[in-house]
Amino acid sequence: MAQYSKPLDEVISELHSSRSEGLSGAQAEERLAQYGPNRLRAKKKKSNLQRFLEQFKDVMILILIAAAVVSFIVACNGHDTSEFFEPLLILVIVILNAVMGMVQESKAEKAMEALQSMSAPHARVIRDGKELLIDADKVVPGDIILVEAGDNIPADARLIESASLKSEESALTGESVPSEKDASLQIEEKAPLGDRANMIYSGCSVAYGRGRAIVTATGMQTEMGHIAGLLEGESDTQTPLQQKLAQLGKYLGFLAIAVCAVIFVIGLIDGMAVMEIFMTAVSLAVSAIPEGLPAIVTIVLSIGVQRMVKQNAIIRRLPAVETLGSASVICSDKTGTLTQNRMTLVKAYDAAEDLMEDISDEDTPAIRRLLQYASLCCDGSVIVKDGEVQHIGDPTETSIVYAAMRNGSPKETLAREYPRLTELPFDSDRKLMTVVCRIDGKNVVITKGAFDSMLPICTTGDMKKAQELVDSMSSNALRVLAVGYKEIDSVPENPTIEELESNLTFMGLVGMIDPPRPEVRDAVAVCRKAGIKPVMITGDHVVTASAIAKDLGIMEEGDEAITGAQLAQMSEEELNRKVRHISVYARVSPEDKIRIVKAWQAQGEIVSMTGDGVNDAPALKAADIGCAMGITGTDVAKGAADMTLTDDNFTTIVSAVKEGRGIYGNIKHAVAFLLGTNIGEVLTVFLSMLFWKQSPLLSMQLLWINLVTDSLPAIALGMEAVPDDVMEKKPKPKNEGIFAHGLGVRIVLQGAMFAALTLFGFWLGWNETGTVEAGRTMAFMVLASTQVFHAFNMRSSHSLFKTGFFTNKYLNGAAALSLVLIALITFVPPLALVFGLTALPGHLYLTALGLALVPVVVLEIAKAAGMITHHQ
User: Which residues cross the membrane (predicted)?
Assistant: First the structure.
């Protein structure tokens, strides 16, 4: 049995402790050795060296290293020291790629540290019958702890005594209202955490009252520690883009090995020199691998991150940009994410006038009087400091005080004009609070509290109608309190409940809600238009959650709302079958949230989870992308999330999704652009060796094209503006490949066209001058220039006449710079010598330029003929 469901004496007996004496010093020492310090286990982190070495597991990187080794061996057997430039350049590229990968993956694992920092630094305990102040990490099971308003709770504990005790547990449960505690209760087994009124929890704080409790769990055994364990268990998964690029890398690697093997066999059969065969194999390996691809994807994603910062979204992991754009389900916490995380008094009913009003700054005199009386019966306060409103105390009370203040009755003014003479503090059994104030020369008893508790003590008023109003207000997610009053002749010195809380006149009702953020309705509507399913997951009550979900458009006709208890009854098969029809999950635990996320993932959906509390952290990490709130969010949530919303605005998610979709489209364009070049290079080298036994491009030239000439336009393609209609399309399926909708076929065909043009250029240069060097120069100029002009084709599937030839200023600059760099290594003799290039007759330069423009013309014709369709 759980500690909250056992009799209190049994709990104390099992822990070998004492209500009054606590543990002895010796017992405490023994248990500290047995259970360890009361802190969370630190997660072992990877060193930068480990991350750096892990980058060399990639097939493409291993092939490049092999190419560098072969090139180095060839250089050692040669007589020209310049031959060492090639293997050194390949190694520099490999190391730079590894460094960039290491930096990208060196994200700080803040979740565990933040959880640790939430632990209380000190604790008040009873040991050997004496009250002591000790370090919180020295607290052990069986310790008797003392807590009061404002204290952080150092460990999970069963209450022994409680006096008007309320605990702020929103970080664990998601509820915005402090939980009322009662030491006398014995809770049924398997009750949700938010319903365990006889327990207090590590990492939470005392909002009101005081208590004495016996520690039942410390460190990793606490509820907070359980969440920390879940965080440890949820490993970082690769995003779809990472998975696709990793798969692509393997395919390209195997392609390079296969083609090299074929060339090696052909070379041996034809009697070619072994060193020459090796150098050709190196050229093929270099041509098959898009060396700049990892760096370019990282740069494009980084550009997207900078754009998102302007949209109030901070990305913690670069690939999360692409994943967010693919999101098809957004599971959102209610408190602080969809709502404002502040109780607000929105409706009031005055019984005397039979008047129900929405609260404003200028309410009727009757409603204003009701608010004044309710405010007088509150201990919470509201202050305005530097123009900012600060709520101090119980959120329900401060919502009443603030409503009265807005109506011209600040708490301090009321307290001065109508002084409090005596009181009966709030009690969780009575669910009432009573004060006696001097109002206009009379002693007035004012009682506020739950309507069910007020009903039997009010003798004046239409309570039947009041009950109907309470039911109506509650069904609309309002938390309802009743207010009653009476006049007495004299104030008793030691007032009793019977004296004050009887024969009251029912004055009215006040209704509070944690209101929805006003902008969320539009954001939800945009999500639905974009084919994204919004789901509410909360620790709050199902009635409240359903009402808010319907108001926001999250819950529609035919959708269901279920509780954590109902979810626990479902098998995995049943949940997977019903998950698409459930829009609201209420009273759920951290494990439930992970289960919900994984049920959606099992349907092939890409799941985004938003939240702000500690209880959200495991699900944030389990989701394909976690979004934490930046203002109200805990450090734990931010540490577990991939993205933080700096304005806590749900609409920011929509903006981020739009940006993510645009960036994914841009990355596809950049990848297609680069791979078209690589396929062209492989076919060029392979076919030339097959028919002419000569490589038309040296590995140095191929590296220059892949890393310099192609990289600049590819990055510029990544900066293309997001299309206006991108949020009118459905999310792409999770299993959709990066080459879907015929993109792979188009890349191969375009690569074949580049190879044909390059081979023609090689033959033309070699044939007209009689030298292989001239043929290679011609081949280099044709292929390099072709890619520069082809980049303009890759901006969109629409014609350049529609998108505009020069509307991407970044591509204009990149193309100009690439052409200048091509000219530099072609026309500057020392550079030309290093890259194996030579001077050509003038007309061949013009011919190379003409050949380079052919793909632009061909693809414009294909677009006009409808052979290339628009798929983002």
Answer: 59-78, 84-103, 251-269, 281-305, 670-691, 703-722, 743-766, 778-794, 815-837, 843-862
